[in-house]
Specification:
alpha+beta; six-stranded antiparallel sheet; five-stranded mixed sheet; 2 helices; about 25% strand
C-alpha cells in the first residue's frame, strides 16, 4: 500500500479544485513558475513549499507577506502535515490536506465485467396505448323540407382578347413617336421658310 497526498481548495479563485502532490517538492505562489499557481493578491509570488520527506509532507513558509497557517495557526517553521488539516495562505485562500491509501498494482474492474455481477433482465418494451376507434353515428331519417340544389359556381369571365392589354403600350408608344416626328417636321418647315414671326409674333425681333 502507498499513500497519495493531495490539496483540495475550499475557498479561493477555484473552489473544489484538486492538486495531487506527486512531486518531491511542490511550490505554491502567485507566480506562474510555481507548481501550484494561485492568482490572488493575498498570495505572494513564492508563498510556500511542500516537501516529501520519509513518506510525509512537510510544509514551509517562504517568507510570504501574509503568512501561512495550519488550522488557523500561523506557522514559523517546518510543519509535518496530517490528513484533514486546513492550510491557509493569507486570509482568503484555504486548502484541505488529504491522504489516501491506494494499491498501484490493483486491477480496477468495471461494473460491466465484474465477476460477481449478474446480467440484468432487459426491460420489457413499452407499449403504446391504443386509441379507441370512433364509430360513426347511425343515419337518421330526414324530417322537413328537401334542401334545394346548391347554387352552381359561375366561372370567372374569360378575357376575349388576352392580347389587348399588352398591345396598348405599343399603340401609345407609336402614337407618341408619330406626334414627335410631326412636331419636328413642323418646326423644321417654319425655320426653312422663315415663318417664325407668322406663327409666333410674340418672339422678340418680329
Amino acid at each position: 500500500m502507498s499513500v497519495r497526498y493531495r490539496l483540495v481548495m475550499r475557498s479561493g479563485p477555484n473552489p473544489g479544485a484538486t492538486y495531487t502532490l506527486d512531486l518531491s517538492q511542490t511550490t505554491i505562489g502567485r507566480d506562474g513558475g510555481n507548481s501550484i499557481s494561485i492568482n490572488d493578491a493575498e498570495v505572494s509570488r513564492y508563498h510556500a513549499r511542500m516537501t516529501s520527506q520519509g513518506g510525509k509532507i512537510v510544509l514551509e513558509d517562504l517568507g510570504s507577506t501574509n503568512g501561512t497557517s495550519v488550522n488557523g495557526n500561523r506557522i514559523s517553521g517546518p510543519h509535518v502535515l496530517k490528513s484533514g488539516e486546513m492550510i491557509g495562505f493569507g486570509e482568503d485562500i484555504v486548502f484541505l490536506f488529504e491522504a489516501e491509501n491506494f494499491d498501484p498494482d490493483a486491477t480496477v474492474l468495471s461494473a460491466a465485467v465484474h465477476p460477481n455481477s449478474q446480467p440484468q433482465p432487459a426491460a420489457a418494451p413499452r407499449q403504446r396505448p391504443v386509441a379507441p376507434v370512433m364509430q360513426a353515428p347511425p343515419p337518421q331519417a330526414y324530417v322537413g323540407q328537401v334542401p334545394a340544389d346548391p347554387i352552381p359556381s359561375i366561372p370567372p369571365p374569360v378575357n376575349a382578347e388576352p392580347g389587348g392589354r399588352k398591345a396598348l403600350p405599343i399603340v401609345l408608344a407609336v402614337s407618341a413617336l408619330v406626334l414627335l416626328c410631326s412636331c419636328g417636321a413642323f418646326f423644321w418647315w417654319i425655320d426653312a421658310t422663315y415663318r417664325w414671326c407668322t406663327f409666333f409674333p410674340f418672339i422678340s425681333g418680329c
